[in-house]
Write a structure and sequence with these properties.
Alpha-Beta Plaits; single chain; binds glyoxylic acid; 2 domains; binds manganese (II) ion; 4-stranded antiparallel β-sheet; Aminopeptidase; alpha/beta; 12 helices
């Protein structure tokens, strides 16, 4: 199957009427994407592996049958709510297409070439970004992962158990990690930073997610006097504005993109507002200062309105500097390419703590991501495939 045919097969999966994608880990559309991955792997006689954390791998083994020192590529197939088509799938489809291109020219790898589809990269269902790669790399306590719940209160442990994974076996897999010689993830660029078809990542800026709970008192919207109210919506609103101000002050970014209101009635003062803060910045200190300022503003407003405010960190990723030697080698293979940092998180950022890691970016003409307008031109995607094939060939030669 060509790149275009693979793309066309995936395109309708989980697509909403507004053009955005809902492919949440272990739900129908994401399971369809997984089935697609396995079909593509089997159609190419690649060896399929699902690890204890639900990450998928397709291995092209060398003649020798050697399994170690693999060159791994790939990305993820899940999406944010209403996400774009490219974030994740572009890296997986490009990986299969790059393997096809290498086979078509008769290349025989001297090291295994693997294609990965990491589970729950976006954390859209269980809240922790890159959950599959974090578990694999030992970057999250398996006990904590087991107890994560989705929006319907279903525990991660129960959900994966329903898909034939043993929840007691999730966690770091030293055998699998030991087989990965390096990881190169191709991804659509997610801002306006790339002006040529293909670039190479230098770094991922520090980023994290925090949960803010504002607990007030539910009551009637018509009969409750203003002075009697303990309305959690008010300190929540202060926190949103404080996030913008704090980000401005600390040269960071801060986003409140998800909020849950209990009970959510037009004519009821809420009893509880839960909001999630995403903050990223040039360094640890900037992000920490941003979150601290938002927390303090929320506590102050909470005290004014007799609302209890709590803050909990859900995930945090320190700055990731991709392996310089690997990055330089890739730039050389590509005959030169822009090297740029990103504000988006990736499984590559998690794996980089354990194996040499690099990323290729494909230009995004709209500069939009995590939304339906996310895009990449067909010719740029094909340039990405050619770049990835050249990199895999260089890294996997005998
Ligand atoms: C993932 O794409 C993220 O940066 O949140
Ligand atoms: Mn994303
Ligand atoms: Mn992604
Ligand atoms: Mn303003």
């Amino acid at each position: 199957m060509s790149f275009e045919e693979m793309w066309a097969a995936l395109e309708p999966v989980g697509r909403r009427p507004d053009g955005g994608y809902d492919r949440f880990a272990w739900t129908g559309p994401e399971l369809e994407c997984r089935a697609w991955f396995l079909d593509e792997a089997r159609a190419r006689d690649l060896e399929v592996e699902r690890d204890a954390n639900g990450n998928l791998f397709a291995w092209w083994l060398p003649e020798s049958g050697e399994r170690g020192d693999a060159v791994l590529t790939g990305s993820h197939l899940d999406s944010v709510p209403g996400g774009g088509a490219f974030d994740g799938p572009l890296g997986v489809v490009s990986a299969f297409a790059a393997v096809d291109a290498l086979r078509a020219e008769g290349f025989a790898p001297g090291r295994p070439v693997g294609i990965a589809a990491f589970a729950e990269e976006e954390g859209a269902r269980f809240g922790v970004a890159c959950l599959g790669s974090r578990l694999l790399a030992g970057a999250i306590d398996p006990a904590r992962a087991r107890s994560l719940t989705d929006g319907d209160g279903r525990a991660f442990a129960d959900v994966v158990a329903a898909h034939d994974l043993d929840p007691d076996r999730i966690g770091p897999d030293e055998d699998l990690l030991g087989r990965i010689g390096c990881y190169v993830e191709l991804h659509v660029e997610q801002g306006r930073a790339l002006e040529v078809p293909v670039g190479v990542a230098s770094a991922i800026i520090p980023h994290g997610r925090w949960r803010l709970d504002f607990a007030g008192e539910g009551n009637h919207a018509g009969t409750t006097l203003l002075r009697d109210r303990r309305d959690p919506m008010l300190p929540f609103a202060h926190a949103v504005l404080a996030a913008r101000e704090a980000a401005r002050r600390h040269d960071s970014v801060a986003t409140v993109g998800k909020v849950h209101i209990v009970p959510g009635g037009v004519n009821a003062i809420p009893s509880l507002v839960t909001a999630w803060l995403d903050s990223r910045g040039p360094d640890d200190a900037a992000v920490r200062a941003t979150v601290r300022d938002v927390h303090e503003a929320a506590l102050r407003a909470g005290a004014d309105h007799r609302v209890a405010v709590t803050l909990a960190e859900e995930s945090y990723t320190e700055i990731v500097d991709f392996t310089t030697a690997l990055r330089d080698r890739i730039v050389t293979v590509l005959g030169g390419a822009p090297v740029l940092p990103t504000g988006a998180g990736h499984d590559a950022g998690i794996l980089s703590a354990r194996v040499p890691t690099a990323m290729l970016f494909v230009r995004n003409p709209t500069g939009v991501s995590h939304a339906p307008a996310e895009s990449a031109e067909r010719d740029d995607c094909l340039a990405g495939v050619r770049a990835l094939a050249a990199v895999l060939k260089d890294l996997a030669r005998g």
